[in-house]
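Lab notebook page, bench 4
Experiment: in silico fold of construct C2
Operator: M.H.
Input chain length: 504 residues
Purpose: comparison with the prior construct
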Amino acid sequence: MKGLVPSLVALAAMVSFLLGLVVAGGVPDGTRRGVVTPAALETRPLSIHTAPADSVPMSAGQPFQTGSIVGVDFAAVAAHINGAVVNIDAVARDPRGRTPRRFQREMPDDSGAPRGGSGSGFIIDPAGFILTNHHVIEGADRVTVTLSDGRSLLATVVGIDPAIDVALLQVDVPDLLPVAPLGDSNSLRAGEWVCAIGNPLGYVHSVTVGVVSFLGRKLFDQSLDAFIQTDAAISFGNSGGPLINSRGQVVGMTTAISSQASNIGFAIPISQIIDVLPQLRERGRVARGYAGVVLTAATPQLQAALTLARDRGALVQDVPPETPASRAGLRPYDLITAIDDEPVLSDETLIRQVAGRVPGTVIELEVWREQRRMTVSLKLTERPLPPTVRPASSNGGIRPAQGSEQGPLGMTVRDIDAATARRFSLPEDLTGVMIVDVDSAGPAHQARVRRGQVVIELNRQRVGSAAEFLRVVSVLAPGAAVAVYVFDPLTDQRAIHSVVIDPS
């Protein structure tokens, strides 16, 4: 018994120690920097919501409060943010139009059928502004947003930035929408808890939890990429959804997954997105400064091998012809140490500083060449888009084209003759019109109305002929919801579809 008492004491001490580790590991750091707010817009500004850096969820259904709690309550985080997460469906009439340039997958040939895809997004302004990935809506002729309350709305693409894979959408709503508060991704640390909310594989509003695995990961564009790597589960359909910290703030946009592992996902830092929001809202696209010079880091090894004059800066590797850099006289082995009197600590620092300036700006570079300091003036041009990216339209928006023969519902019908009735084995007492074509980017297709179905009624009005159908449709108002009562020969069943006519 004497030997047992010290053992119990030691065991209790060990349990207390381990419990202390668990508790300490869950306490949010209240000493972080404040949240980032976007620059004011010249037009009506986006009412982007941010939250205090140390705010934490107390419980589901209650507002976020400031303070510290033990542990991380992601159930409260999800309850607070879920209403601002949306599902996005994109359809293109051109079967080649829905194969995202970065995320191509092997897909079967469907004989020229329209290509469709879906993803996620989150509301950042109560007036209906939504962020998602560019690759979710790339090449689409119709973009539909489904809100958390079940409403499906036609979206306008306000602006796109293919360089970092971001798109800004807007839906027209009569009421104010819930928004996701934006945080500061610059204050993230590897190992910090985060959660992702989205619609993976069509499973809407799925919540997954993990940690930040790495910050600043390069995937596609070595000059601009600074992805957040996380082990929070991300699947196809999560693209465009929010990555959220333990204080209920969006710190990233989930955008890609590793094809070689199931627990490696990537998100665009929200601070990088906030920087381009004013241009997306005002211009529909993002113009970045471009010097046209290939850089590398001035590593200790290169410093020793090249006897560089400084131990920091961006080392010039190549100067392509007909670029601002070549016109300014930059050469390989030049070491750039400052831009407009701001120190350049690395090649990535210089790239970000140049990209953040407006094309046409003249910059002053401090350059060391063969142990001599010199100043080089350089006039920036606009950073070119990758050759595979289709530029945005002049107004940045996507509106579906509508054939006149299809009408506002986006479908073509014809009378049912005896041969058609026999071919489809239609009931003898069935009256209506046969759907012979459905616009793949029209409202009927969005409501799952299909070719081969028989329209019996529109808003409870019988349509016994194509002429009656056209008469009823002709008085429908833009934006109106229409109850389409159909018979489906494939299932031998009747169904009611709600088709919302596109606004004018």
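Observations: DSSP finds ten helices and 28 strands in the chain. The first helix runs from residue 4 to 26.
Next step: discuss at group meeting.
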